[in-house]
Amino acid sequence: xxxxxxxxxxxxxxxxxxxxxxxxxxxxxxxxxxxxxxxxxxxxxxxxxxxxxxxxxxxxxxxxxxxxxxxxxxxxxxxxxxxxxxxxxxxxxxxxxxxxxxxxxxxxxxxxxxxxxxxxxxxxxxxxxxxxxxxxxxxxxxxxxxxxxxxxxxxxxxxxxxxxxxxxxxxxxxxxxxxxxxxxxxxxxxxxxxxxxxxxxxxxxxxxxxxxxxxxxxxxxxxxxxxxxxxxxxxxxxxxxxxxxxxxxxxxxxxxxxxxxxxxxxxxxxxxxxxxxxxxxxxxxxxxxxxxxxxxxxxxxxxxxxxxxxxxxxxxxxxxxxxxxxxxxxxxxxxxxxxxxxxxxxxxxxxxxxxxxxxxxxxxxxxxxxxxxxxxxxxxxxxxxxxxxxxxxxxxxxxxxxxxxxxxxxxxxxxxxxxxxxxxxxxxxxxxxxxxxxxxxxxxxxxxxxxxxxxxxxxxxxxxxxxxxxxxxxxxxxxxxxxxxxxxxxxxxxxxxxxxxxxxxxxxxxxxxxxxxxxxxxxxxxxxxxxxxxxxxxxxxxxxxxxxxxxxxxxxxxxxxxxxxxxxxxxxxxxxxxxxxxxxxxxxxx
Length: 590
What we know:
By secondary structure, the chain is α+β, with helices and mostly antiparallel strands. The chain is built from 19 helices and 24 strands. The strands form six sheets. Strands 6-9-10-24-23-22-19-12 form an eight-stranded mixed β-sheet, with helices on both faces. Strand 1 and strand 2 (about 35-40) form a beta hairpin. Helix 14 runs parallel beside helix 15. The longest helix is centred in the first third of the chain and has 23 residues, at about 135-160. The radius of gyration is 30 Å and the shape is globular. The termini are far apart. The model has no long low-confidence stretch (mean pLDDT about 95).
């Protein structure tokens, strides 16, 4: 018999009754019944109940061994009595009578409970992550992640994509977030950067003549943590295709994403990935990552308020403000309206006006000032019914969209209008190529700077930059951005002109992107791609609210690895070898 196990802890069934077996694992639970001690032995695969009698030689050792100690048990498989069968376990019809008991590794007193769903707090969980991962939910999440990644690989290969690995040590590049820098010992004063994404490399793979590339890529960005974003590093399904248009990228990606969600979730999956222009998304949903499960849309009612007797809005409209109306199904009470107004003030807005509809009339200060005809026009525009309310955000277009979008989500959540048993997908398309800084008016890229403008060079030469759209797209699911992508700019002259409009002269392009701009001079195919986030996909499928729950060894919100004590200081001798001097930080005022 093998030194540690003949079976794993999920393998034994009634067909094994009478067999002499050996199991190894962790003591998950222990129940002392005086003359009998029961152990639930756990390994990666499952649980098996083992039992020892007070007359057995190993009884005292079993009784004294702590939970989470690693042990090897040798014994005989017995059939459980009918009243002790546990149908929730594959091994629930049998138990193992302990004949030999060996402690492979004794556990100290535990800092957190492994055999419980009780949350011990993030700091404890991350500091002892190897214990936390023994718990059922985290363990299953990480296994789900591994299975999803394998499924993605299989699906990509089936579509004739080839997996390549791109460099981790590369050049710093303005990708929109801070780089993690690595000092180059052999080149004093110079630094590598960890890639924020394999963007330039995957485009160069297309220039190199390969047709369909993918990888499960590690990406590194020095940015703040959020519930849906892990600080430091994340993983994405990175892919690129040659000789494609936007529709070809969608056709390649949709079966992969839909198939993975169908394979690993029992929720209803959208068969159609709807396409929503960016401008429509901002108007109807208040953001570019709409949750389509919320069954109502924002609408513009600026013209109804223009020149009206509701003076506050009318005067602001004269100054360039807009008014967005947010339907409030089942919100037709003064108490709810007051709560929404207070909530808006907590968000930094002056408040939210409202109209309450019921018994065939419109009520509230806004309705009174507008009069019945305009109040009815708003009701029709918002699709409101008796018992509903309509809430208003009046501000600049961006500010009104932001407040209205957040209000839409809040109403959907508060009124339980979101169907949590479905995944709804959308492509957000036709992003603006450029945007203007609201303070300085400076033109800059609004999305990926390597995207092809719709209309090509003609658009760059003849259109107002703020009217130019790009071949850029985002994939969104249930209000979460899964991915960004684009059809790439593969023409040097178009790339130079696009960067020139954004204020970057030719020499900056040559300096920052030498490989790409040079490569494009030697024949680059039209190409495009996308990079769905692995962590976010797993988070949605696992129904976890925080992305750290689906990452093997995550950092905390301060980008610290409590388990490995990173980041950490290094010796002065190591810094000297890298030609780096430690600069004392000024002391904070008391």
